[in-house]
Amino acid sequence: MPVTSRVNPQLIAGLLFVLIGAAFLLGSLDLSYGTWRKIGPGAFPGLVASGLIAMGLVVAFTAEKHDTGKEQPSLYSSKVTFIIAAIVVFGLVVRGGGLLPAIFCCCFIASFASRPLQPAKSALYGLGLGAACSLAFIKGLGMPIAIIGPWFGF
Amino acid sequence: METLNALLLGFDQAILPTNLFWCLIGTLLGTLVGVLPGLGPAATMAILLPFTIGLEPVTSLIMMAGIYYGAQYGGSTTAILLNLPGEASSVVTAIDGYKMARNGRAGVALSTAAIGSFFAGTVATLLLALFASSLAEIGLLFGPAEYFSLMILGLVASVVLSRGSLPKALAMVFVGILVGLVGQDVQTAVPRFTLGFEEMSSGINFVVVAMGLFGIGELIKDLETPESRTAINAPFFSMIPSREDWRRMVAPILRGTGIGSVLGLLPGGGALLAAFAAYAVEKRVANPPEGFGGGAIEGVAAPESANNAGAQTSFVPLLTLGLPANAVMALMFGALIMQGIAPGPTLISEHPDVFWGVIVSMWVGNVMLLVLNLPLIGVWTRLLTMPFHYLFPAIVVFCSIGAFSLGNSVFDIWLLGAFGVAGYVFAKLDCDAAPLVMGLILGPMMEENFRRAMFLARGNPSVFVDRPISAGLLVLAVLAIAVVALPKIKAVREEAFQE
Description:
The complex is a heterodimer of chains A (about 150) and B (about 500). With about 150 residues, chain A is mainly α.
């Protein structure tokens, strides 16, 4: 596979660095670079971003040498999706729904990322965890958030 | 005498019931994560950081420190009993320790590790007490130019000592610096790289980044490696080392303690490097009848002493100069900032209770570990069989609550998700996240000192090489890079991290 063999983690990492560097370099152009004596807010980020682009190029161009024929990892994994979804749902629910429902949803969704628990078991676990955290963080540490939020008419 | 008084002040702090309690919690938690492979001390500290806001500064630091050195103990327990080094710093312990366990000397190996760690911890505490104040006095002489150069050296050292390729680690440092610069510019109040989000104008919270990269990132990676943990019942026989064992462990413990104490002091150093170096030296010096790898007690005593000594002395640069030496210290730095304490040379004089309290509590924590750990070994090994699928949803929940509780802002939860993805991608691409976190912490300080130094020098960049201390630090940084770039040393370095 002559085409795919170049697409190795090194190359992707290098390109990613170049991309991040370029984004910050562009952003820094909007800011003042100042003078040597009074250095502006843009100069240091600009310098570092240029360094990042340079390093990214080095990483990308030395890619093949470092490729030891290891198994190429696939970047995508359904597990990431579940974990990130769990975090996002927590964020969506916590204000309106309250801490307990947020933890319940978060825990329930996250549990799909592993060997599937039986849904009933995992729901029960979520409820228990939610109750325990509500007690500890809201009653114990005084976190300013409702256990059951306004969505449920409280 | 002065040191003695200071130590007594520290004792007053360390034996307060609250501090004792949180020290115990910290060391137990640390041992737990040390036993469990995957979740490291950095991840644990990151996850717990937001919840320590409510504690007194000294208490929260004591707990955090407990997690760090507790993890060293826990890591060695599983390394010896199950050949599963829970921490990277126990990898070398597993070589001879597990062999000893197979030979029916598990108890002796565990005792050796505990005794070595305790001795090293005691010596390192004393060293800290003796030399920290003088180092802080040197730190007081530093101007912005010296600080800038010191940070360059710190970053270079963390890059040189990290795993993987040098350009990659450097790139990760740069990414970290850039992320650290997001938010309002300190001098001109201009918002930078905020993408128009008002929530970002105060900067991206360090804790969220650390939780995302270390906590969530590592978690997803762990989920992908299939579970293969089976507890083995190692026969214990005797815990008490024979007279012969005692005779053989003394020299390695002394050597390990010495190596660990010195390497821990270096920027970029710490427990991991100390353990590897001590084992390498022991291989050259000692001549055990079994040979190394065959269950030599020297191969357990030296690295275990070294990693504990290194873990402890790596607090010195942080507490005296404000320079975190590694990712774990960067988290300690974050904890100090959260508590409103600026780490740096003035820490000892302005917050002597915090400084000495933390130092003495490390010794107290080591006593706790020595007393508690050996009887609890059965519990720890049984925990290994605890199903991971119960643990990880709880970790996700804790991270989310932690991110939210930082500023009661949902925005931080989105950031947590984003950095979780980033952590996963970096892990997949074989990029170590530790240099990024170092850059994140040091970046903003570097910029500030750079700008201040340039202003004081009326725009003359030669200020960094004209001032002798600054020039010396820069030369060291250049040397460090040059040395690693040499082909021969490069090979050794790669080999060292392969083991």
